[in-house]
Design a protein that fits this description.
There is one protein chain. This protein has about 260 residues and is mainly beta. The protein has two domains: about 140 residues, Immunoglobulin-like (Sandwich); about 110 residues. The strands form five sheets. Strands 5, 6, 7, 11, 12 and 13 form a six-stranded antiparallel sheet that branches. Strands 15-16-17-18-19 form a five-stranded antiparallel sheet, covered by helices on one side. The protein has a four-stranded antiparallel sheet with strand order 1-2-4-8, with no helix packed on it. The chain starts with a strand and ends with a helix.
Length: about 260
């Protein structure tokens, strides 16, 4: 299966461009594969540039409230300028690297509500730029991320929602201008607990895992026992019983606050 899109014709010559993704199931640090096909119009045209990138729809908080913003967080130029002959087809294969911090959009075959990440295509002709619609990709968790997600499910937590927020989590290896929060609803044994929010910030070797209970809007309460941040190696995560680790932390905090 492949996603396809056709951008609007550009200029009087009528050149158009179509992008086809041949591999859109990826993990952070992986590669999305595809091909861009530019169809020549009725006259020769000078193509000044062609690029593909990744875009995310992110929540931005301002004094006037929240709004959505599309942020392109990686971009790859495909070759240089060239002349497109009338009626000719110019095909450009590509492999677009997925940054390690890219948010998860799919878990166990289920798309997370609120996640919008995909490939954009940009074609420049005679100082005009045409950008196409988003070709969605499925970003699956890394094995280390999946282990922690599975631990929440093992403890009886239920997925509530996920979002991407502009800003930075202090004390992490974050480089992108936004981060993901995955929210879980607790089972009955953790009475008094409203929810737990989970964020991953990964690189090629390890990831920061950020957990918070009863998060106050816009603040990461680092001095509180309801906040926990720790590092997990991408290759040695299996040495820890994550369900037991999470249960111990939740139980300790809940006991102190008489939640459970």
């Amino acid at each position: 299966m492949a996603f396809k899109k056709l951008l609007a014709s550009l200029g009087a010559g009528g050149a158009s461009v179509e992008t086809e993704l041949t591999e859109f199931n990826v993990v952070p640090g992986g590669v999305v594969q595809g091909e861009v096909r530019i169809q020549g119009g009725s006259v020769n045209q000078q193509i000044e540039g062609l690029s593909v990138g990744l875009q995310a729809q992110v929540e931005v908080e301002t004094q006037d409230g929240e709004h959505k913003q599309n942020i392109e967080f990686t971009k790859q130029r495909l070759g240089g300028a060239f002349e497109l002959q009338a009626g000719a087809v110019h095909a450009v294969p590509f492999g677009l690297e997925i940054p390690w911090e890219t948010p998860i959009t799919t878990i166990d075959g289920q798309t997370l509500r609120g996640m919008h990440i995909g490939v954009t295509t940009e074609l420049e002709i005679a100082r005009a730029v045409d950008s196409g619609d988003l070709d969605p990709i499925n970003v699956h968790p890394l094995p280390a991320q999946k282990a922690i997600l599975d631990a929440f499910i093992q403890l009886g937590f239920r997925f509530k929602s996920a979002d991407m927020e502009r800003g930075h989590i202090r004390g992490t290896r974050q480089k992108l201008p936004f981060y993901q929060e995955i929210e879980f609803l607790p089972p009955s044994q953790y009475r008094g607990l409203n929810q737990v929010e989970l964020s991953f910030v990964a690189d090629s070797q390890a990831m920061d895992v950020v957990l918070e209970m009863d998060k106050k809007p816009g603040l990461f309460s680092e001095g509180s026992d309801t906040f926990r941040s720790f590092q997990v190696g991408l290759h040695d995560y299996q040495t820890t019983d994550w369900a037991a680790y999470l249960n111990q932390w939740l139980s300790e905090v809940g006991s102190k606050r008489n939640w459970f």
